[in-house]
């Protein structure tokens, strides 16, 4: 019996020690009343974010359109197919499809130029039942943007407000709306993955601006649709993706501020012209520049000048280092190319160069491209 009393006393002692430790932990740990609000706050934040997405999607739905175009079939091809194969080839065929959005209530729409390029008819659909003919107003092939106008009589359309893309922050939520693969009014969400993404060229044309990168899903058919912030403002136009055939989370949008700079020119109609210098350039700190004896680290070095080009007529020559263009300090040749292309054809600009350690100033009347 003695061993039984020993076991009972030992068990009682262990129980007292465990109970003491539990009570001590409850007193010293984080109070539970601090944990409960944290969980409630997280749930509320997720709900608020979801509500914001829904609100923007509903408010923007009537403003986003799908665009379908046709292109003419060359008469020679039609005659060839008819003569040799007895086929009746239509005069026009479906050419392209994409997205766009109203930015004015009287029927003006912004979209990518490549959506309507080469077309002879443009149809705009607000929904699956409502479709209007549209016509091209103004376009900029290099920036890849176009303004088209719906012929809707006196009808007033719902327009989206244009925001400020310069205020976008990396990591900020954005919403893309468009018609990927013809699926009308598709909404995707993501964040601004990066700002200021630069490319030498896109689809064979020189890139004249930097782009907003987003992981909001963008696919064929989204081109021309809006990229919106959580206030429902357009901050970009979804333009292209990296990846074969579909979204891999790397899409790019034209910043809306870049479009706003030329919007009045687009509304006046016709093609937007871009400035041209008529020179071949390299960076000042490049091996090519060092071979030419250039000893500065910043600037754009002229390697060659086309005869009778704007640069030639102004007096610029090979070996000149362009260090200032229209009041902007030039760091490299890419920056200079972009600034030149951002000017309208025919603009007169001040150019400062280094030539034999002297600073010279020129006035250049830009050509057009």
The number of domains is 3
Q: What distance lies between the first and last C-alpha atoms, to the nearest angstrom? A: 108 Å
CATH architecture of the largest domain: Beta Barrel
Number of helices: 9
The CATH superfamily title of the largest domain: Trypsin-like serine proteases
The average pLDDT score comes to 86
Low-confidence stretches: 16-42
Instruction: Going across the biggest sheet, name each strand in turn.
Output: 1-2-3-6-5-4
Structure description:
With 369 residues, this protein is α+β, with helices and mostly antiparallel strands. It folds into three domains: 87 residues, Beta Barrel (Thrombin, subunit H), CATH 2.40.10.10; 107 residues, Beta Barrel (Thrombin, subunit H); 94 residues, Pdz3 Domain (Roll), CATH 2.30.42. 27% of the residues lie in helices and 34% in strands. The protein contains nine helices and 23 strands. A six-stranded antiparallel beta barrel has the order 1-2-3-6-5-4. It has a six-stranded antiparallel β-barrel with strand order 7-8-11-14-13-12. Strands 17, 18, 19, 20, 21 and 22 form a six-stranded antiparallel sheet that branches. A hairpin with a 2-residue loop joins strand 21 and strand 22.
Features:
six-stranded antiparallel barrel, alpha+beta, Thrombin, subunit H, Pdz3 Domain, 23 strands, 369 residues, 9 helices
